[in-house]
Amino acid sequence: MKKLFRRLLPKSMRSGDVTIPVIRLQGAIMSGGSQFRPALSLATTAGLLEKAFSIANAPAVAISINSPGGSPVQSRLIFKRIRDLAAEKNKKVLVFVEDVAASGGYMIAIAGDEIIADPSSIVGSIGVVSSSFGFTELIKKIGVERRVYTAGENKATLDPFKPEKQEDIERLKKLQLEVHETFIDMVKQRRGGKLANDPDLFTGLFWSGKRGLELGLVDQLGDMRTVLKDRYGAKAELRLITPPRGLFGRRIGLFSSSGTGFGPEIASAAASGLIDAAEERALWGRFGL
User: Fold this and answer.
1) Whole-angstrom Cα distance, residue 64 to residue 22?
2) What pTM did the predictor assign?
3) Average pLDDT over residues 177-183
4) CA dihedral 219, 126, 66, 52 (to 10 degrees)
5) CA atoms within 13 A on the CB side of 66
């Protein structure tokens, strides 16, 4: 009779059965995005995080990260939401690195109480980068004159169609240093005495998971399934948390953008998606992927 009653209960309520919610965070980190290419941001991850941490009997939440980085603001917002939920729900956070957790991807990874990486994964890149293009010679060749009108002498700094000014470059570098200091402080606060005394640690370099273990950037080498089964038992259920789907199977809510998605909106979203894809390709390319 007890066995029959136990079978009728949801798995999360059965004594001895452990459920570990799993979230996959993959892609470049940026605000915005489109229906064609959703971005990794707080807006696209908040619902997944809330759902995962709301599973009452789960002792931990597992987060798989595969990201080359992107927006430092969105990275920190995701980091903070994970830590806030972990404290609120009193759950341990285990982060697993797939191919890459670099730059903003590593900023999210340090939200974990432990970071587990594959020996061949890439971790680190604790730095800040800004990239652009210069088109001054191109517009001369095609006979185009650039006209910019501003109220405020510094309103049009680093215009790609005008020659660079040294004071603009210095101002950008100062801003980068401030963002970099915030990143370094976060890593030191979360990793503490685990970090090795290496002069290259915060220079923007990146390493394999194996070297990352020696540097204190990760806690263990391994894969999600093996680690979770070892810790919580062979019968532990790994439950992947996914966005809800609409009537026709399309994922909605957490990853969709507003609008009807017809006519000009599709064209606009497609164009935006191409730009996002190019930016994301450049981010992955830094790590040979």
Assistant:
1) 7
2) 0.75
3) 88
4) 70
5) 11
